[in-house]
């Protein structure tokens, strides 16, 4: 018996050693053999361990990598010995955006058997699930749907302004105000729930549930690392990236209410999601199950909440530090809005300076830091002849592109004039990509700016913002969360006009 155990242990150890040796043989000096410059050692790129211990933000880590290869169009790096390709050259980035058939998926992966919810999230899903889900979700974000949302967004802005009026000549944390506004607006649109988030208190169950859905600290760091880089271990360790009990309860309630045939289906995003198309074949229908609903509802809440809150707060921050821009924007707002009976949706589309301000905020603070893809078919970079092999993950740092002085002189100066000709030219040049690139770009690309522009117009018509002693310069970001979010909030002094 003892002998059998020893033989078993010996064989297992030999098999593991062989597997590791084969793995190392396959990948060791992978980039060197292809004459691709490399970053650091074979096992772990640079100081990536600081990211997963919560000391360094992942976006910052990518900027440091980008800056360490100033002359290279791309370079390779390794995570646990797996080769990654970091793309720096705008022309190559454009090619990746255009050639969706080669770069359909992200390299993050989650097996449906291991996590039936996360695996279906639009952010993680692979084809054909991703394509069908994206088609279905895209119908929710049409200009007509936005227009219909405007009165609701306005009513929440009005409540915010009533709160702000009480704080004339006081210092307030606009990040907190922005989060409260989004706690009211987003669950209303996506889930049809009234969060009743008050502005004078910081404890709202829905806000806390959304903020905690992704967790924080070392546990989230480890879970994110496993999902992103060693997905097979997720099942073994049974760790979960998502705390979705709150969304699950809401989805269950909606599905339950549909069983009652007298119930009239609403116009909320969740109603549209739950409303399955009768033309779908059985297999597709099976995919769009309750887990799919929970997955998409959570994805929308997570993907929207932090970026839109920070986007609003950081817009006010930059407009406070740059008073002449704030004044210019206010003048434009008053020029377009002379009385109370105006169609705000049409007006914000016409406001050129407002668009320039928003574009510049998204340049300095792209909020979604990186683009990540998995090459799903061998792809040759025409300019250099490098063959990116099937299965190779690639990384693009949006933040690093947006703050590279080669593309944006004096990159940390807030200057909306950079966008006086719009964003198209810079987008086409592959150097402006706040919402990513290609077919897998952000689903909220048109929605987020609409909400922020309305909120900015509403608040700047009534209030002026100035920096104060507590205003950080520059803003310090939280290194323990995946999104870009100010660690200590954004403190500004507010004056009633
Ligand atoms: C200022 C606000 C926002 C910024 C800067 C932002 C940025 C991004 C970026 C950079 C990506 C990755 C794109 C790529 O890989 O090419 C992304 C993906 C995504 N975003 Fe946003 N986002 C914002 C707001 C929103 C909102 C409001 C929603 C929800 C309506 C949303 C939903 C998503 C989804 C679902 C994806 C994954 C898309 C897919 O894989 O098909 N985002 N976002």
UniProtKB/TrEMBL annotation:
PROSITE patterns for this protein: CYTOCHROME_P450 (PS00086)
Location, primary (coarse class): endoplasmic reticulum
MF GO annotations: heme binding; iron ion binding; monooxygenase activity; oxidoreductase activity, acting on paired donors, with incorporation or reduction of molecular oxygen
InterPro entries given in the database record: Cyt_P450, Cyt_P450_CS, Cyt_P450_E_grp-IV, Cyt_P450_sf, Insect_CytP450_Detox
Residues reported to bind heme: 442
TM spans (from-to): 6-24
Location relative to the cell: Endoplasmic reticulum membrane; Microsome membrane
Pfam families the UniProt entry points to: p450
Cofactor(s) this protein requires: heme
Recorded topology in the membrane: Peripheral membrane protein
Keywords carried by this UniProt record: Endoplasmic reticulum, Heme, Iron, Membrane, Metal-binding, Microsome, Monooxygenase, Oxidoreductase, Transmembrane, Transmembrane helix
GO cellular component: endoplasmic reticulum membrane
Function: May be involved in the metabolism of insect hormones and in the breakdown of synthetic insecticides.
Similarity annotation: Belongs to the cytochrome P450 family.
Protein name: Cytochrome P450
């Amino acid at each position: 018996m003892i002998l059998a155990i020893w033989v078993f242990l010996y064989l297992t150890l030999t098999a593991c050693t062989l597997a590791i040796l084969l793995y190392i043989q396959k990948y060791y000096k992978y980039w060197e053999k292809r004459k691709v410059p490399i970053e650091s050692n074979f096992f772990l790129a640079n100081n990536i361990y600081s990211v997963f211990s919560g000391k360094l933000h992942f976006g910052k880590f990518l900027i440091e990598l980008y800056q360490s290869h100033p002359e290279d169009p791309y370079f390779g790096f390794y995570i646990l010995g797996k080769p990654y390709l970091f793309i720096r050259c705008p022309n190559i980035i454009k090619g990746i955006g255009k050639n969706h058939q080669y770069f359909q998926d992200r390299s993050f992966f989650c097996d449906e058997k291991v996590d039936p919810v996360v695996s279906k999230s639009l952010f993680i899903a692979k084809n054909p699930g991703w394509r069908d889900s994206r088609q279905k979700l895209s119908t929710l974000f049409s200009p007509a749907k936005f227009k219909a949302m405007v009165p609701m967004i306005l009513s929440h802005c009005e409540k915010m302004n009533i709160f702000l009026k009480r704080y004339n000549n006081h210092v307030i944390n606009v990040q907190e105000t922005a989060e409260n506004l989004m706690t009211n607006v987003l669950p209303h649109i996506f889930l049809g729930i009234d969060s009743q988030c008050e502005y004078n208190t910081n404890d709202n169950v829905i806000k806390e549930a959304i903020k905690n859905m992704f967790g924080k600290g070392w546990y989230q760091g480890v879970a994110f690392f496993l999902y992103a880089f060693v997905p097979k271990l997720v099942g073994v360790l049974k760790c979960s990236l998502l705390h979705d009990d709150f969304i699950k309860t809401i989805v269950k309630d909606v599905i339950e209410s549909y069983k009652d045939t007298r119930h009239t289906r609403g116009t909320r995003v969740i109603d549209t999601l739950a409303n399955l198309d009768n033309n779908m074949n059985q297999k597709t229908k099976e995919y769009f199950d309750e887990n799919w609903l929970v997955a998409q509802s959570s994805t929308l809440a997570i993907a929207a909440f932090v970026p839109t809150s920070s986007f609003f707060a950081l817009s006010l921050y930059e407009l406070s530090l740059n008073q002449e821009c704030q004044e210019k924007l206010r003048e434009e707002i008053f020029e377009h809005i002379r009385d109370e009976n105006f169609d705000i949706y049409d007006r914000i589309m016409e406001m050129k300076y407002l668009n320039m301000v928003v574009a510049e905020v998204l340049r300095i603070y792209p909020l979604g830091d990186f683009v990540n893809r998995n090459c799903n078919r061998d792809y040759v970079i025409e300019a250099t002849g490098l063959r990116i092999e099937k299965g190779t993950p690639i990384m693009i740092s949006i933040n690093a592109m947006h703050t590279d002085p080669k593309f944006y002189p004096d990159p940390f100066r807030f200057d909306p004039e950079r966008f006086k000709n719009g964003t198209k030219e810079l987008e086409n040049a592959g150097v402006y990509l706040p919402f990513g690139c290609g077919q897998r770009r952000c689903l909220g690309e048109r929605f987020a700016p609409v909400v922020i522009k309305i909120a900015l117009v509403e608040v700047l018509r009534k209030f002026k913002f100035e920096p104060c002693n507590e205003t950080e310069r520059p803003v310090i970001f939280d290194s323990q969360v995946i999104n870009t979010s100010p660690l200590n909030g954004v403190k500004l002094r507010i004056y009633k006009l």
